[in-house]
Request: fold
Amino acid sequence: MIIFLIGMPGSGKTTIGKELAKQTGSIFIDSDIYIIEKEKLSIPQIFKTKGEDYFRKAETNALKDIIERSKKAVVAVGGGTPCFHNNMEVMMKGGKVIYLKASLDELAKRIEADANERPLFSKHKGPKLKEKIASMLDHREKYYAKAQMSFDTDNIAPDIIAKQIKGLVE
Reply:
C-alpha cells in the first residue's frame, strides 16, 4: 500500500513520513527529491528555467511513477501538489491520502526555525510569515480536505502520530 502525506510546509510530512515508513517496513519517498533526482535540477532551477507549469506537470508524473513502481511506500508530497492537475484524485486512486494539520502558530514556528530549507518563506518573518502561511492555507484547504484521513500534529510526537496512522491503515 502507498500512503501519501499531504499538508502545509512545516506540518510534519517528512519527519512523520520517515517514522511511518520505519514502523510499516515501507520505503520513504519525498516527491520533491524524486523530481530533483529525475530532472537533475533543484526546484528553484526548474521554476526559473522551465517554469511553474512544467514543475506542476513533473509533480503529476512523479506521483504516477511512484504509484506504478512502488508496492509499499510512504510518500511526502510538496505542499502545493494536491492543488494541481487532479493530483488528489491520482493519489486517492493510488493509495491512502492523509492530511497532516498544524495550527498557524505551530506552522510559523516550525517554518521560522527551518527558514533556510524553505525558500518560499525566507523573505517573511513574524506577522508577515503568518500572513503568508494563512493565505496559502486558505487557498489549499479545500484540496487538503479531500484526504481520506487527517491528523493534527501540534504537540504530538512524530512516532505517536505514525503509530496512530499505522493502526488505521493496516
User: Anything to note?
Assistant: The chain is about 55% helix and 15% strand.
